[in-house]
């Protein structure tokens, strides 16, 4: 419904601003304040300190952060490679095959993530693929969960491609493999970078499946935050959350620079 009067527009903008403030700004502000709070017995924290942030980057915290970064990057690479292959294959397939392929790729996000974690734990807990108790089952769980978003992003990029480029390449004698490597994939670089950024962001914050499958030697930062919160150490959990947010933002900034360069090409 279109809004023409200034009053109606102002009301809609005010409602939107209130929703953003309550749903987005307030929780983030609470976490940031708790990260530097020495005490919080009233409406606002008191005795502000940086001690919690210093504790959040201790050796144990940095180890969990490094595990999260490694898991996110490896899962992101795997999801981009597999998701791109699935999206390209489905795009050229007949309608029923395409719908089935895309449906299967989106199935992991149609169920709770703990279901995915439990399924992987049962499926890969015995030979010949014994992944239980290793870091690889965590990486696999993350890759499975972010695969759907990669497929969706790449599929949207494929739908926007001008078929004239591929037709011109084929008319000049290029093989299908050459068309894919020299025409399609270069044109899809912005979509691939966007898919990688989304995969990394989602993997950095994933908890449900991770807590089902992670071994003690491969504990991600969200698991550490959950553990701290569960034992009542909310201030340190908030500080670790701030560290997670900052590192995730830096990773996304780096990937956005790659995306911008790809778009210029």
Describe this structure in words.
This protein is mainly alpha-helical and 265 residues long. Helices cover 75% and strands 2% of the residues. Strands 1-2 form a two-stranded antiparallel sheet. The longest helix is centred in the first third of the chain and has 33 residues. The model has no long low-confidence stretch (mean pLDDT 87).
**H/I helix tally:** 12
Provide the CATH architecture. Answer: Orthogonal Bundle
Sheet-strand content, in percent, reads under 5%
Please state how the strands of the largest beta sheet are arranged side by side.
1-2
Identify the CATH class: Mainly Alpha
Throw out a few tags for this protein.
2 strands, mainly alpha, MetI-like fold, 265 residues
Please describe the topology of this protein.
Elements: H1 6-35, H2 51-56, H3 59-91, H4 95-106, H5 113-123, E1 125-126, E2 129-130, H6 135-160, H7 163-171, H8 176-187, H9 189-204, H10 210-213, H11 221-230, H12 234-264
Antiparallel strand pairs: 1-2
